[in-house]
Amino acid sequence: MNNKNKGNRILMLLIIGGGGYIAAQLLRLQCFHIYNIINSDMSSEMVLARQLAEQGKWLLSENWYYSTELRVVNTQLISAFIFRFTDNWQLVRALTAIILYLVCGGAVAFLGKSLNWKCWVIFLCELLMLIPYSWEYLGIVQFGCFYYPHISLMFFALGVFFYSEKKKVCVLYWLLISFLMGLGGLRYLLILHIPAVCAGLSLLIKKREFYDFMIYPTRENIERLLGLNETHYAAVNISGGVMAGVGYIVMEKLLRKRFIFQSFNDLSYLNFGEKGESIFGTFGKVIMGIPEIMGFKYDVRLMSVQGLLNVFILLLVLVILICVSVQIKRVFVGKDSLDSPERNNYTSDFILLQFLFSFLLNLFIFVFAGNYTSRYWILVLIWLIPLLAVFMNGVERASNLFRLCILSIIVYALVNGTVVLNDAIKHNNSTNRYAVNRYLIDQNINVGYSTFWNANVTTEMTNGEIKILPINSESDLVIYKWLTPRDFYYDDRQIDELSFILLSRQEAEQVQDIPLYQNGQIGYMDSSFVVYTFKRDYLESQISY
Question: What's the pLDDT score for residue 477?
């Protein structure tokens, strides 16, 4: 065995072994420590899925207050189906996550096959897709599974897009997927379709045939232009963007009449001076969200494992910035040094520009519209994985330096992912909830009230036995119409004579002088929670629906 084959074999074993370890840790978290990082936002997906199963539905529920998007192709497709066979919420969550891991892995493999990636490149992308890079990344992607449907759909869509050159039927699949994406809201347009149209047109405009057509629009030049792969891809991109736009219009004009969800139409430019923020401060906060989502942590010692990881993360961000800048320059003013087929050059250039336009467009919205939290970067930065893949796949003769770079990426990802997973398994953030949940179950009261972050999570942790409606605040007894049933559990509320309000100790300290609570009784109290019990009729007379 020569050194090249030996090195490739070691690299493949490291990828497979690392992937197996991360997968085992994720399964351990999902099966045996499922409540460690759970919250009401995550639990809302389960509550919705359970409701759909009870109604005999699969896709959408009119009896639900959605959040910032209408969940069309999302986790409920899987969870609602599993709920038809079991009432065990833990089992449903674990099986849903496992299925989504497999679906996302299939999406990566499908995209890789459409681009003729080498086997080890596909396996490396599978590994990088499976690893949680930060606590928030774990909660949003691997555990909460919010973004796995989005990532899978985007990768399947891109694979179908690249297949469309050889298989014309894939154009229809691309249009259908684009329409479904549009039904999910503006997110896909901002992350995939608008950037893809810009990337496709940019690569078409830089062709000599396009320049000749613009100067001399003769029949011969038109035929030469139409014969380009770039023209085909640009046309497919534009048609996909149109279909996504049609889906978005259908959602806004038709589905909004039947379903309740927030709209991005309400976004507006921030008045930085009015809020006391500077544009540079906001820009800095948004940019620092990139290393944060990759695992960077504040307030840690420099000479610690996390401190050293912080240094590596910042260096990695710098290297990514330099590499992307160099590649962008190559696309527009230079020549590719790799002796690769034209189609491979196009795909690498396209994915690079698609990432660039997606990054710039979302950066603009994050800064100037104020619609930002660091997790929003995930669906933008996820394009770095296929971008890395097309670059690695184009290297025919790997040097030792190249192998060292790949090894460094794998080691960083595995170490960072291991730290995040071990931390999640070791620390149970729901320990303080078990006792109060047991009290509520023992009291056999079906429905109560609490602020949002104590509502749906209690429903999931009690296996659906205790249903809680969210209120705006402990003192504002108005139902918070966000990720909760529109019928407010009406049938369940009529069963019991008693009802309750669940408060944190901090919230309870703020309500001692409010008349409502003086008419209730403290049924339970510990260091974290207080439960006030009331006659159901009285409490409902005080709650605004």
Answer: 87
Say how many Å lie between the first and final Cα of the chain, rounded: 73
Task: Give the start-end residues of each E strand in 486-528.
Answer: 498-504, 521-525
Spell out a b/e string for 237-255, using b for 16 or more CB atoms within 10 Å of the CB, else e.
beebbbbbbebbeebbeee
Residue with tokens 């890079």: 133
The SS3 call for residue 450 is strand
Least confident of 82-91, 165-174, 279-288, 395-404: 395-404
Residue position matching structure tokens 């379903």: 259
Band (pLDDT 50/70/90 cuts) for residue 298 is confident
Closest CA to 396 of 1, 8, 6: 8
Q: Report which of residues 398 and 251 the model is more confident about.
A: 251
List beta partners, residue 498. Answer: 535
- CA 326/CA 331 separation, integer angstroms: 9
Calculate mean pLDDT across residues 8-37.
Answer: 92
**What CA–CA distance (Å, rounded) separates 535 from 497?**
6
CB atoms closer than 10 angstroms to residue 486: 15
Report the pLDDT averaged over residues 60-78.
Answer: 89
- CB of 425 within 8 A of CB of 28? yes
Q: What tokens does 92 get?
A: 């449903």
Q: What's the distance, CA 321 to chain centroid? A: 23
Farthest CA pair distance, the chain: 87
Say yes or no to pLDDT of 306 above 70: yes
Which pLDDT does position 3 carry in this prediction? 60
Please name the residue ranges forming H helices in 262-372. Answer: 279-293, 305-333, 342-368
Residue from 295, 291, 292, 289 nearest 413 by CA:
295
Confidence of residue 274 (pLDDT cuts 50, 70, 90): low
Handedness of CA 212, 217, 222, 228 (dihedral sign): positive
- The average pLDDT across 175-198 equals 93
The DSSP symbol for 484 reads S
CA dihedral 31→36→42→48, nearest 10 degrees, is 50
DSSP state of 300: -
220/217 Cα distance (integer angstroms): 8
Alpha-carbon distance 94 to 82, whole Å? 11
